[in-house]
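One record is kept unedited as follows:
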Amino acid sequence: MNETSYFLYSRFHEIKTHSFLHEFLYYFPNSTLLDAGAYLGDTSIQLAEQHTNSTILAIEPNKNNCEFIKQKSTNKNLKNLHLYNCGLSDTDKKCLSCDYDNFRPDKIYKESVVGIKTKTIDYFYGKYPALNLIHLDVETYEYMCIKGCKKIINDKKPIFIIELLKSNKDNDKIKNFFRKHGYREFVIPESVSLFGGDKGYNHVFCHTTNLYTQFIDVCLNKGLINPV
């Protein structure tokens, strides 16, 4: 089942989002990209295979999913893929837990007294100073993740790709957060639902005054993003 899911999500899911990520790494080689909510590595492994000069950080709280990613990346000898079995939040002092432990992509983790430990985006920025693109697909927990990235926003103003599900009550908070920090908002014109439906979209947040402006113009011309 896991191999089938990996095949489907790596080949047919969020095609324009994957194209945007690839375009970024072609445009900015030697980058570090953080992929949170890596699931089975369907995004991280593709990126690591095709962009060997870049560093890909796969962040996944599910232990079984991590074992799958580890085995697959080892078989492919992907030395530029760094796997972390943890969650993301606004502090490294929290724990997250889930009511079920399987390969579903829509697992919702909640804060608890026991469970998987959390790290912040700023923690990874401290370990990987070249971090300049952050992809968050963490099933409505995105706002807590971006609250843990104050230093990197002040220092580097990286690009963010964030899944905004219609069911996420924090969508306005996320948009206001980036607006407050001088970011422009774009949307990738494809639903995040694999089998149809209008579940939500991936949104791109790029600072208005940094070096990524020309890259954003390229993506607009290619139809990978639309202004909001």
